[in-house]
Amino acid sequence: MGERGAGAAGLGRRKKTGSRPLSTSSVAELEDAEEETLSRRKSLAENGRERGEPCPAQSQAARPSDNQFRCHKLQESLLSSASGYSNYRGILNWCVVMLVLSNARLFLENLIKYGILVDPIQVVSLFLKDPYSWPSLCLILASNIFVLAALNTERRLASGAFPESLGIFLYTLNLGTILCAPVLVVFMVTSITSVGSVFALGIYTILFLKLYSYKDVNKWCREKRKAKVKALARSMSAPVIKANGDMAHSVVFYPGNVTYRDVYYFVFAPTLCYELNFPRSPRIRKRFLLRRLLEMLFFMQLIVGLIQQWMVPTIQNSMKPFRDMDYSRMIERLLKLAVPNHLIWLIFFYWFFHSCMNFVAELMQFGDREFYRDWWNSETVTYFWQNWNIPVHRWCLRHFYKPMMKRGVSKWMAQTAVFLASAFFHEYLVSVPLKMFRLWAFMGMMSQIPLAWFVAKFLRGNYGNAAVWISLIIGQPIAVLMYVHDYYVLNYEKLQ
Ligand SMILES: CC(C)(COP(=O)(O)OP(=O)(O)OC[C@H]1O[C@@H](n2cnc3c(N)ncnc32)[C@H](O)[C@@H]1OP(=O)(O)O)[C@@H](O)C(=O)NCCC(=O)NCCS
């Protein structure tokens, strides 16, 4: 009550003074009195600190009756970095809302300008020129020959009928044909379309990488077998019993793996790296499978629709500035194309690496579902390539990079060699179907090496992450426009 009474008395006194006008001398007196009180408090606090006593503020805080009136504490504003605040979920939602709104405007503008361009019949014509000729499908079915050739070579190598040198020769022939045969077909068969060729060549490239891995792993098994011949006398396929009594997938030992069933399981499995015993999931989850299937169908339609409605007209409108070498209009077109291109690429990522790969994995009870890692947090270009496409990265490490490093090749040389190989396959998948060799994809991939060096040396944290995003958002449409421009000049301008 004493404290409160004093406070109330003080207030009353101030009110009284406030009710009548103050003379200049009384104001000066009041200021002097306040200054004196302040300096007295200060000296008291200093003396107290010297004696190890709490300062007046602290001692007030300790008094429970004062706590009731306190509404301030020592704290930073949320947006200042010293506050340590990091929950920006609401801001992220705002970004998404803004993105949807601004894209909705673009979408409406596009609809008003061009009308509805989505045409499912046109999609069929991208795959087939002649309804009675299906060259891409025939090419894909013919790829079985190479699988069977690899299996039979392995069988003979395993039984000792073929020496290792003959095995190397046959594999070189088989893998070389896998890369060359579809190129010949694409150039010779006129009824094959560019989109159909991309599919066929993509499947042949995957098969090339898979059979290369198949060859390596079986060779490693033979080398191991040579080292422990005795132990392997008893090591053919043996069933394993689970703890609950169920029959688990049998564990296979070399050469028990060299069978049709095993090689075809690998050919269809969502991985490029062969293993004798893949990790297997215990059962097929039907709801999971159905969700992935619906996603696959929906996102495929969405990608095709966005390409027809948004990308194609933008590309068509970009031809004139590129022909006239009008630089400011070229940059404007490039930035315009960057938005749909990037959106389609992101949807493609989810469609392929999440929906399709998980669908196939679930169907085949393939247990390892690490098809991608958090590449979106990449602060360096190296991190991006290590995490965005795990099947390819794993293959590169296991069958190309590490063997080179073990042979004493320097890290820089080995990385350059991996990017060279990757650049070759990127160019192979674009140039052959377009029947035009321009090396834009090759250069795009090779430019990752200096870009990786630059980002690692000069940029850190969020700046590095922004640099990776910019390179993805801008880099891809540059390559797309280059190819389309060259294709247009080569195929249509000549006709005019
Ligand atoms: C080139 C590339 C393989 C380098 O990968 P990286 O992870 O940066 O390479 P690192 O130097 O960090 O080494 C990776 C591995 O090699 C191992 N290694 C390094 N030196 C070694 C040596 N002398 N002997 C054996 N192993 C070695 C490391 O221990 C590490 O092993 P871990 O993965 O088991 O931890 C990678 O950037 C890549 O995959 N690039 C191409 C990607 C691509 O083209 N993708 C196409 C997608 S469309």
From TrEMBL:
<feature type="transmembrane region" description="Helical">
    <location>
        <begin position="412"/>
        <end position="431"/>
    </location>
</feature>
<dbReference type="GO" id="GO:0004144">
    <property type="term" value="F:diacylglycerol O-acyltransferase activity"/>
</dbReference>
<feature type="transmembrane region" description="Helical">
    <location>
        <begin position="293"/>
        <end position="312"/>
    </location>
</feature>
<feature type="compositionally biased region" description="Basic and acidic residues">
    <location>
        <begin position="37"/>
        <end position="53"/>
    </location>
</feature>
<protein>
    <recommendedName>
        <fullName>O-acyltransferase</fullName>
    </recommendedName>
</protein>
<dbReference type="Pfam" id="PF03062">
    <property type="entry name" value="MBOAT"/>
</dbReference>
<keyword id="KW-0808">Transferase</keyword>
<keyword id="KW-0012">Acyltransferase</keyword>
<keyword id="KW-0256">Endoplasmic reticulum</keyword>
<feature type="transmembrane region" description="Helical">
    <location>
        <begin position="195"/>
        <end position="214"/>
    </location>
</feature>
<dbReference type="InterPro" id="IPR004299">
    <property type="entry name" value="MBOAT_fam"/>
</dbReference>
<comment type="similarity">
    <text>Belongs to the membrane-bound acyltransferase family. Sterol o-acyltransferase subfamily.</text>
</comment>
<feature type="region of interest" description="Disordered">
    <location>
        <begin position="1"/>
        <end position="66"/>
    </location>
</feature>
<dbReference type="GO" id="GO:0050252">
    <property type="term" value="F:retinol O-fatty-acyltransferase activity"/>
</dbReference>
<feature type="transmembrane region" description="Helical">
    <location>
        <begin position="463"/>
        <end position="484"/>
    </location>
</feature>
<keyword id="KW-1133">Transmembrane helix</keyword>
<comment type="subunit">
    <text>Homodimer or homotetramer; both forms have similar enzymatic activities.</text>
</comment>
<comment type="pathway">
    <text>Lipid metabolism; glycerolipid metabolism.</text>
</comment>
<dbReference type="InterPro" id="IPR027251">
    <property type="entry name" value="Diacylglycerol_acylTrfase1"/>
</dbReference>
<feature type="transmembrane region" description="Helical">
    <location>
        <begin position="437"/>
        <end position="456"/>
    </location>
</feature>
<feature type="active site">
    <location>
        <position position="426"/>
    </location>
</feature>
<feature type="transmembrane region" description="Helical">
    <location>
        <begin position="132"/>
        <end position="153"/>
    </location>
</feature>
<feature type="compositionally biased region" description="Polar residues">
    <location>
        <begin position="57"/>
        <end position="66"/>
    </location>
</feature>
<keyword id="KW-0472">Membrane</keyword>
<feature type="compositionally biased region" description="Gly residues">
    <location>
        <begin position="1"/>
        <end position="10"/>
    </location>
</feature>
<feature type="transmembrane region" description="Helical">
    <location>
        <begin position="165"/>
        <end position="189"/>
    </location>
</feature>
<feature type="transmembrane region" description="Helical">
    <location>
        <begin position="343"/>
        <end position="361"/>
    </location>
</feature>
<keyword id="KW-0812">Transmembrane</keyword>
<dbReference type="GO" id="GO:0005789">
    <property type="term" value="C:endoplasmic reticulum membrane"/>
</dbReference>
<dbReference type="InterPro" id="IPR014371">
    <property type="entry name" value="Oat_ACAT_DAG_ARE"/>
</dbReference>
<dbReference type="GO" id="GO:0019432">
    <property type="term" value="P:triglyceride biosynthetic process"/>
</dbReference>
